[in-house]
Amino acid sequence: MKIAVVGAGFAGLASAKVLREFDHDVTVFEKAPDVGGVWSATRRYTGLRTQNNKASYAFSDLPMPRDYPEWPQGEQVQTYLESYVAKHGLGPSLRLSTEVVRAEPTATEDGWMVTARTAGSAVSAPERFDHLVVANGIFSDPVLPQFEGFASLVRAGGKLVASSQLTSLDDARDKHVVVVGYGKSACDVAAEIGTVATSTTVVARHLLWKMPKHVGRVVNMKYLLLSRLGEALFRYQTLTTPGERFLHGRGNGVRKSLVTSLGKVTTAQLGLKKLGLVPHGEFEDIARSTVSLATEGFFEQVAAGTIKVHRDSEIVRFLDEDGEPFAELSDGSRVRADLVVCGTGFHQRVPFLDDDVTARLLDDRGNFQLYRQILPHDVPNLTFCGYNSSFFSPLSAEAAAIWIAAHLAGGVDLPSVEARREQVADRLDWMEKRTEGKHARGTNVIPFSMHNIDETLDDLKVNVSSGTKLRQWLLPINPAVYQGTTDRLKERLRA
């Protein structure tokens, strides 16, 4: 088949590599001048690092370089992806600096017409493809809140950007900076800015629990969160293993004690009580939205007064006071705001699809209806890769790409459309309740990354052995054990 893939991050590159192995003619469109997605030089904010250690954040057939630090920097991840392109000869399939401006089904819906524009050129004529893989990512389109008084901010010389648009510390040097949000990007940016700005203020509507990289300054968090045991500490939609049934049954007291202890150690280690930054609720709430690591230097700078956090607060409006930009907060205070950096999340949308196609992808609450986070119910010749937040993004992308290849080969035993609709609707209801509405339009699967990978590979009957899964209960996930999954699928399809 002639296949178009939109996006050259982990998901897009995995799709290209796997689909080419099945002899498809693949073209990858990427509007940035380099591969990487969120790790592209055009989008990675200053201070960006991985959330998990390098050993678990890699494709199955290409480990991160040995000389990389345990938590690689954004530039290193992008370089790693360049090496993946070189290893698998993906260069000829890439169209960099080329944005897909429109993709629409053919008149008979037996393929897609893709209209693209190369940087500096006019829009090209539509090109026909048999299949379309959407891999533009769920962290590619930042949300910028509509603040009252924005014109006053600009008039006074202030500037508002998304965290992904702050690619140089020089933009914040010697300025009064306000960072909006308390997620990973907001805290990462604040910690970097705090070293060069005149003042750094974090405005957080809700505080989130953070996990230190080394709990108790001894135990690496990878043993606590990046294993099947760590995932099983939180209740999944269905309890599929004896270990899960024990932890959420007779052993629930043990489980709760362990999670509570983690919360107490974290609170003490980060000094949250003294800083007045203990989040509302319990530590188990860390799994409701996103599990975020504590940014190195963030809480130390808060303790030193370099960073000031206004918790349970938000910007009410911007003001121009005597030609200087200020932000008025809901707690009644006013702070100077030469630069406002918003780490306020991302839109989950596919801008190059028209309204009719988009409406067929979403439910009445705006959630993506995708079986296995991959397959729409009634839009033919279309699949999604990477539309699931995951601790193990490279491995999750590989699993989805392999599923897509099997689906195109007729090798997936799919339930009926009605059964898939019911299953996806049940999953969305569960996700919405579990996250209290912070389910990113149905794309939030963290912390249940391995459950998602299991379900995807179990469909194809190419998952790892039960013995391997047992070892993964106590040891961090090693993507290398999944090497050869594509070959196993080929053997099964031939049989």
What does the model show?
There is one protein chain. The protein is α/β, with parallel strands linked by helices and 495 residues long. The protein has 2 domains: 2-141 and 350-494, FAD/NAD(P)-binding domain (3-Layer(bba) Sandwich); 142-346, FAD/NAD(P)-binding domain (3-Layer(bba) Sandwich), CATH 3.50.50.60. 32% of the residues lie in helices and 19% in strands. It has helices spanning 10-21, 74-87, 150-155, 184-193, 222-225, 228-232, 242-247, 252-270, 272-275, 298-304, 355-361, 393-408, 417-435, 449-460, 466-472, 485-494; strands spanning 2-6, 25-29, 94-95, 98-105, 112-118, 127-129, 131-134, 141-142, 159-162, 176-180, 199-204, 210-211, 214-215, 219-220, 292-293, 307-311, 315-321, 324-329, 334-336, 339-342, 346-347, 370-371, 375-376, 382-384. The strands form 8 sheets. Strands 3-2-1-7-24 form a 5-stranded parallel β-sheet, with helices on one face. A 5-stranded parallel β-sheet has the order 9-20-10-11-16. Helix 12 (393-408) runs parallel beside helix 14 (449-460). The radius of gyration is 23 Å and the shape is globular. The two termini are 22 Å apart. The mean pLDDT is 95.
Q: Topology of this protein?
A:
Layout: E1 2-6, H1 10-21, E2 25-29, H2 74-87, E3 94-95, E4 98-105, E5 112-118, E6 127-129, E7 131-134, E8 141-142, H3 150-155, E9 159-162, E10 176-180, H4 184-193, E11 199-204, E12 210-211, E13 214-215, E14 219-220, H5 222-225, H6 228-232, H7 242-247, H8 252-270, H9 272-275, E15 292-293, H10 298-304, E16 307-311, E17 315-321, E18 324-329, E19 334-336, E20 339-342, E21 346-347, H11 355-361, E22 370-371, E23 375-376, E24 382-384, H12 393-408, H13 417-435, H14 449-460, H15 466-472, H16 485-494
Parallel strand pairs: 1-2, 1-7, 2-3, 7-24, 9-20, 10-11, 10-20, 11-16, 12-15
Antiparallel strand pairs: 4-5, 5-6, 8-21, 13-14, 17-18, 18-19, 22-23
